[in-house]
Amino acid sequence: MSNELSHYIKKIQQDLHAIPEPAFHEFKTAAYIEKELKSLGYTVHTGIAGTGVTATLTGKRDRPCIGVRADMDCIKHEDDGRLFYRHSCGHDAHSSIALGIARLFSEKKKEMNGSVKFIFQPAEEIMQGAKAMVHEGVLEDVDSLIGYHLRTATECPTGSMSPALMHSAGTILTGKIQGKTAHGGRPHLGVNVIDVFGALINSVNAIRPNPQTGTSVKFTSFAAGGGSFNVIPGSASFAIDVRSRDNEELKRVLENIDRIIHHTGSMYDAYITYQVEGGVPAPRYSKRLIQEAQFAIESVLGKGKAISPIVTPGGEDFHYYTKLTDIEAVYLGIGANVSPGLHDPSMTFDHHSLVEASLVISHLVNQLHNKQ
């Protein structure tokens, strides 16, 4: 069975890897997944949030219904001015794992003490897909939700898995400062946006986040003035990157930044505007599901193969599922020897890890079926 599953998943991954598509344009990917799921006997719904796909299989009873989420979109890269698309974050692998799990359950439908629902989500890379899927109601019949992601060997050794991947919440603020241009010899007639930005950066850097929440605040962009060195610049733009492992702390920091921006503008007689460019929340996992995931990992891979939760500054839009609903969820880290790293166009990984993940997650779904 393991060899058959390995060949099946490898072919799926190779096929999906050959048709990388960006956010909300996963048309070929969705069609491929739909065809495969229907061949396995699933009830399939397509066109959800544009290109999303869901598929449900019911065993001896409808509930509990365990959701398995996989992302589908790829990343857009640029090389010497040439744009190209590539699955450099492993979403082709994630969809392949889900289809591997789907095949396992299609062969044991009569033994299932519940149902399983696969959620193939678009647009994770632009952090909009999960929200769109929630608004489409994909979780209304789901009791628990499972997500997962390939990891590097330094985070999670090959052949092991983590029962919880602890992402950070993150958001980007982009803003503009409108002052007043003046001659360099008459600065009193202008409002120098560089002075305004200096006050702004000092005040924002004085914010003291709770050190236990892994929160960071940093300016990542600033542009002002033109080509003349004797002109007081009257307009500027800036960006601030904010990250935290705690949603409430992130909210508090953003409120502080908002107050600072308004007070600084008033103090310097400048007009400062900003907007929040999307972002993602921090995880809210079920302790019960983390324990169940740890048990499933060690049951399939062996004792000691479930490592501690992985803490990462990266973000993941999966966490909108728990922010926007009350569903209990867990998100596993898969030891896949990702090299040289995620989002690198030359990224590679250990293909056997996809088989291990399929076996572990299917085992976890069965556990949850039998304990509810």
Brief rundown of the structure:
With about 375 residues, the protein is α/β, with parallel strands linked by helices. The chain is about 35% helix and about 25% strand. The strands form five sheets. The chain has a seven-stranded mixed β-sheet with strand order 1-2-6-3-7-17-8, sandwiched between helices. A four-stranded antiparallel β-sheet has the order 12-14-10-15, with helices on one face. The protein has a two-stranded antiparallel ribbon with strand order 4-5.
Structure report:
The strands form five sheets. The protein has a seven-stranded mixed β-sheet with strand order 1-2-6-3-7-17-8, with helices on both faces. It has a four-stranded antiparallel β-sheet with strand order 12-14-10-15, covered by helices on one side. The protein has helices spanning 2-17, 27-39, 91-106, 129-135, 193-205, 247-268, 287-301, 320-324, 352-370, and strands at residues 43-48, 52-58, 65-71, 75-79, 82-86, 115-121, 144-151, 161-162, 165-166, 169-178, 182-183, 216-224, 231-232, 235-244, 271-276, 310-311, 328-335. The protein starts with a helix and ends with a helix. By secondary structure, the chain is of the alpha/beta class. Helix 7 (287-301) crosses helix 9. InterPro entries: Amidohydrolase, Bact_exopeptidase_dim_dom, Peptidase_M20, Peptidase_M20_dimer. Mn(2+) binds at residues 89, 91, 125, 149, 343. This is Amidohydrolase.
